[in-house]
Amino acid sequence: MKILVCITHVPDTTSKIQFTADNTKFDTTGVQFIIGPYDDYALARAVELRDQTGGTLTALNVGEAETEPTLRKSLAIGADDAIRINSFPKDSFFVAKQIAHYAKEGGYDLILMGRESIDFNGGMVHGMVGELLGMPSFSPVMKLEVEGSTVKMAREIEGGKEYLEAQLPLIAGCQEPIAEWKIPNMRGIMSARTKPLKVVEPVSQETQAEATRFQLPPAKGAVKLVDKDNVSELVKLLKNEAKVL
Amino acid sequence: MSVLVYIEHADGKVKKTSLEAVSFASALAAQTGEGEVVAIALGTVDSPELASVGKAGASKVLHADDVRLNDGVIQAHASAVAQAFASVGAKTLVLAKSSLGDAVAARLAIKLSAGMVSNVVELPKTSGGYLVKRSIYTGKAFAESEITTENKILAVKKNAVDLKTDGAGASVEKLSVALSDSDFASKITSTERATGEVLLPEADIVVSGGRGMKGPENWGMIEDLARVLGAATGCSKPVSDIGWRPHHEHVGQTGVKVAPSLYIAIGISGAIQHLAGVNSSKCIVVINKDPEAPFFKAADYGIVGDAFEVVPKLTEALKAEL
After folding, report:
1. Which of A110, B1, B119, B177 sits most deeply, having the most CB atoms within 10 A of its CB?
2. CATH code matching the domain that covers A2-216, chosen among 3.40.50.1110, 3.40.50.300, 2.102.10.10, 3.40.50.620
3. Do B301 and A118 touch (CB under 8 A)?
4. Quick one: average pLDDT of A79-108?
């Protein structure tokens, strides 16, 4: 089985979010970048499936040169090779077009990625790639087993889950608990240095909905503390001041 | 011309978030002069429910009453909505952000060559360009995205608009859609859904517990408080990781993102990953015995005290008041 995992390069979840250049750019000062947490689940499951069924696992990222350490980390975790599509990921449509092109070229049976990136939270790329390639797409997938050409999945729905079956090839946007995150070991880190990482140019520059300006939410006022022996005061405040009861 | 709204329903009832999407579309149509709001519902829905979509601002409901569409088969739903979009001559599709809605809309973005923005928090600016404000970084910031295509898709975040209830009412028309076998290439074999409880992603009030609750056996007081408030229950990531509560109750960065009117956090310290899941709440109450808990900085109201004392008292006080 040929598996493709698409990786985002995103600020660590504890990062302070700030913008520069008149609120038109993300401020990377002091920010540590990681593999998107949902992509990390997808990668972990992909490594397990590759080990079970044999075949190959390719990691792909749409990003400029600074994303290479993130892509190398996915090689250290277990991907066999990597592709970096050399461009800033301008919007979901732009990214989906690139992935669809290289996925078609590579003839992958299974394409996994996170349910959404944790920077833009769009959650659209898997569905777009699916439609571009004429493959079924599923998200958010929390369980995925491959039996021959049949894929059995559990998809999270509001307040529960649905179990479904489909045939390869397909695309899934993943989330926990599809697999446990894998921490690269020393051998993985060493071998990642020499695994192939191919840099290719984007196939299209087309965009549909680029973000042009950013804004932080207004600062929160100070908390109003209520004495623990006077909880009825809290009820009054919620009713009369916050008007949420 | 018209604005099309994709409606979701569960157990025959239209979801409140879908009614919000209709309200959003109604305000949008008034702003852009796009004419009437047409809703599309797929599968079995109660007839009075469809008419109620009119109160939220739709003038027509297209109902594809095909049992094969009762399950949320993503490809089939996308095909059906694409056909309706063409037949009513819509340029804009509005829907509520949800597990199914996102999956269906992403495919539609390609089918309709439509620029799509998700997590939309307010009506777009449409004089000179088409600028859509959206929530990003899991609620920690906003971006303005410019849609440059003629067709557009907006996935609206919960609480982005007030629910409209004074619409004139809608006519219901049967819609027949052509679906092929490839639309049903996936098969839903079974569904597990928590019943009789308030669903967390859609709840107006949420009561969550953290490790400070000390064990799953103490969740009774969280549930009692939730019951008095008609609230859904949630939990922090460590709590679902150790199996005290099911995964679908995990609120946070990698769990459910909630946007209720009132969020009550009990025994949760307020790690930044948890805050990412709740920062769209209108009002946050924190109960924690540690006055240094970071959650107090993100709260509107707080009580420093032992949850085991404070929560039962709060439940009693609410019973007396509500």
Report:
1. B119
2. 3.40.50.620
3. no
4. 97
